Amino acid sequence: MRYSAFSIVKNALTGNVNWKPAWRQPEPKPFYDVIIVGGGGHGLATAYYLAKEFGLKNIAVLEKGYLGSGNVGRNTTIVRSNYMLPGNEPFYEFSMKLWERMEQDLNYNAMLSQRGIINLYHNDGQRDAYIRRGNAMWMEGVAAELLDRAALKKMLPFLNFAHARFPIMGGLLQKRGGTARHDAVAWGYARAADRLGVDLIQNCEVTGIRRENGVVTGVETSRGFIGCGKLGLAAAGNTSRVGQMADLKLPIESHVLQAFVTEGLKPAIDHVITYGAGHFYISQSDKGGLVFGAEIDGYNSYAQRGNLATVEHVMEEGVTMIPGLSRVRVLRSWGGVMDMSMDGSPIISHTPIDNLYLNCGWCYGGFKATPASGFCFAHLIAKNETHPVARFLRLDRFERGYPIDEHGAGPQPNLH
Q: Fewest CB atoms within 10 Å of the CB: 11, 49, 75, 262?
């Protein structure tokens, strides 16, 4: 069923009892040409683009829980392409362009809101770094604007400009940045992939990867063995565990990233704002709740929950940037399992096993990368060659000495 104004009116007049399920519930086939492990945004987008752009038909997505139960529904919904390094900026700008046409492509309302994202700076050195980043963006054809304190005060008068230790001096604005409804992105890709014949198999946990003569022949699952011609891993924070099934030791660590939502407020924050003296970021949802987060929990974990010390730290950062937040009540929080790479940048790559492909290392950037991640991973699997905008994201860059270290933090995943 194609969604339209006519279908909404028609179903409203008939009691909304004729809507069909958004996707099928198929039983697994004995064999697929391509299996994608992971029914989150990246896995679903990969399956969609494999079918739509590259003409593959016999595809399955295996998800151990329900679709969208992982990181795609456990983030702060931010989309942007304000990166500096040549390995990142073209890739995330490609993703931004896919975001801008996603709703028409999928026939689904992902609630994309390009309200602008502002990165605050607090000293001269940080301003110079943002000037450099803005210039790098312009060199890739991406608009950026440096705002001084006066301009920022007009736009965001509620910020704490006169903080004694971290005074706000200005910010770097990308007007095309913003937010999208995170679970709608998963549902939109799932529905569109299903319409193209992709089998979306939920509650099907992969427990082993079977190999013969050096190539993958299929996966052992909680629903039996399923054979495949090619296997793609898009398991986010669980990638290292799934990779171990094929004897892959990957340069990633898993950490929890917590996010929070407050009670609903009248419209107060028009942009996405990030705090330059820490890693706090905040926006306001369409329902009025303030959505925010900050750094990951510093220890390795596969749990979808964090600790109170990080909660306290996030709240302190938020109140330092916006003192009025101290009067707002937090209603709920969640944790996503981040696959943090050694240089803070993602991996879309071949592996040492010919028909096994890898999509991981998304750190804080997984949600905004969803469309480009899916498109480039599908390109790699279908053509067995890297997409041009993902050419820097190969797994072997670490052993070749070509990391993409956006923050200059060195090979320490929990600092990126």
A: 11
DSSP character string of 169-237: -EEEEETT-EE--HHHHHHHHHHHHHHTT-EEE-S--EEEEEEETTEEEEEEETTEEEEEEEEEE--GG
Q: Which residues pair with 356 in a beta bridge?
A: 231
Adjacent-strand bridge partners of 140: none
* Amino acid in position 45: A
Q: Is the dihedral of CA 245, 307, 121, 145 positive or negative?
A: positive
- pLDDT for the residue numbered 74: 87
- Whether residue 397 has pLDDT greater than 80: yes
**How many residues are there in the chain?**
416
Q: Partners of 254 in the beta sheet?
A: 339
Please report, to the nearest 10 degrees, the dihedral formed by the alpha carbons of residues 171, 175, 181, 183 taken in order.
-80
* C-beta atoms surrounding 125 within 10 Å: 9
pTM of the complete model: 0.95
Q: Which of 371, 361, 368, 365 is nearest to 395 (CA)?
A: 361
CA-wise closest residue to 268 among 346, 158, 166, 130 = 158
Q: Collapsing DSSP states into helix, strand and coil, what is residue 302?
A: coil
Which regions of 53-129 does DSSP assign to beta strands (E)?
59-62, 78-79, 117-121
The pLDDT value recorded for residue 415 is: 83
What count of other Cβ atoms lies within 10 Å of the Cβ of residue 405? 15
Using pLDDT thresholds of 50, 70 and 90, give the confidence band for residue 236. Answer: very high
Q: Give rounded-to-5 percent helix, strand, coil for the chain.
A: 30, 25, 40
pLDDT digits (tens, 9 = 90+) for 332-355: 999 999 999 999 999 999 999 999
Alpha helices in 107-123 (DSSP H): none
CB proximity list for 57: less than 8 A, separation 6 or greater: 33, 51, 196, 197
